[in-house]
Design a protein that fits this description.
This protein is mainly beta. It contains four helices and 17 strands. Strands 7-8-9-16-11-14 form a six-stranded antiparallel beta sheet, with no helix packed on it. The longest helix is centred in the N-terminal third of the chain and has 11 residues.
């Protein structure tokens, strides 16, 4: 198979069986394959959904994928601008795009997750970029539970981190400070009290606050019924979760330096 080594896990010959294709899809963890013919030209695309629907119709695992792959598919040329990919991804159901050279052979692949990661990392690239090198975890950060509620990182790159924090009724964060970052808060739901150094401010939906680097601060939900939800943007030379000093904590936690509190 004369395909770029990086792309080989996502490529399958049209003569392969559905079972072969399922193994390759399971290994590449992306849910799709690009189907090529004997001349290495792109013949079609295949998703795990295509295989599932074929099995429902009565196809056998020994069926060659030439009979079940999608022949009418969206693609881009190497000469296209990456903005063309942005437009294609607006179409419902398009989650990956083969990029094809002048001879009709596979040159690259771009997924919707990679496109989003490219934008969030502020990388200016053309369609020859090594999209597989992108860390797509920036697109789908986990939710982290804490005694006071939970937080989820929306964006993290070298410039800033953006989070959503939800503080349960009666919950409060530690009295804390950060050595390397400043924070900007917007309250989007609920109400509560924010302490910044010796000042105590009542906040509600629409309140905006600036937390300077090194300032002691704390967020408390004063409601007994509603969560207090804020969006937070962090800017600084270091945005790691261990940049935290705790002075007081309602939940008996020491200054472990390993979690947002």
């Amino acid at each position: 198979m004369n395909v770029d080594k990086r792309l080989q896990p996502f490529v399958v010959r049209m003569s392969a069986t559905m079972l072969d294709a399922l193994h390759r899809i399971d290994n590449n963890k992306k849910g799709f394959l690009i189907v090529i013919d004997l001349s290495q030209h792109v013949y079609g695309t295949l998703t795990d959904g295509d295989v599932r629907r074929a099995l429902i119709r009565g196809a056998e695992l020994s069926t060659q994928i030439r009979f079940i792959c999608t022949r009418q598919f969206c693609f881009l040329s190497k000469r296209d601008d990456i903005s063309a990919a942005t437009e294609l991804f607006k179409t419902e159901g398009i989650n990956f795009i083969p990029i094809i050279d002048e001879e009709g052979k596979l040159s690259n692949i771009l997924t919707k997750g990679q496109m989003q990661a490219l934008l969030l990392y502020d990388i200016h690239a053309d369609l020859s970029y090594d999209f597989l090198s992108l860390d797509e975890r920036i697109v789908d950060e986990e939710i982290y539970h804490r005694p006071w509620g939970f937080y989820k990182t929306a964006i993290l790159n070298e410039y800033f981190r953006s989070k959503v924090l939800s503080v349960r009724p009666g919950g409060k964060l530690s009295l804390q400070s950060h050595d390397h970052r400043e924070e900007y808060w917007i309250v989007v739901h609920g109400e509560g009290i924010v302490q910044i150094e010796q000042s105590f401010l009542h906040v509600c939906c629409g309140s905006m606050l600036f937390i300077p680097k090194g300032a002691k601060h704390r967020l408390t939900n004063t409601s007994e019924e509603q969560s207090l939800i804020i969006t937070e943007v962090q800017i600084g030379e270091y945005l790691g979760e261990d940049d935290i000093v705790r002075y007081e904590d309602a939940y008996g936690r020491t200054n472990l330096g390993s979690e947002k509190s």
